[in-house]
Amino acid sequence: MAVQALQSSGVGLRRILAHFPEDLSLAFAYGSAVYRQAGPNAHQENPMLDLVFTVDDPVAWHAKNLQKNWSHYSFLKLLGPRIISSVQNNYGAGVYFNPLIMCDGKLIKYGVISTGTLIDDLLNWNNLYIAGRLQKPVKIVSMSENVVLRSALDKNLKSAVTTACLMLPESFSEEDLFIEIAGLSYSVVSVNLGKASLPLPQEVKRVAERAEPLSLTLAIEHSDFRMVIGEEKAKVLNIVKPNVAHFRELYGNILQENPQVVYKMQQGRLEIDKSPEGQFTQLMTLPRTLQQHINHIMDPPGRNRDVEETLLQVAQDPDCADVVRLGVSSIVRPSSIRQSTKGLFTAGKNFGNRRLWYTCYVPTGQSGFSVVG
Question: Which pLDDT belongs to residue 10?
Answer without folding.
Answer: 80
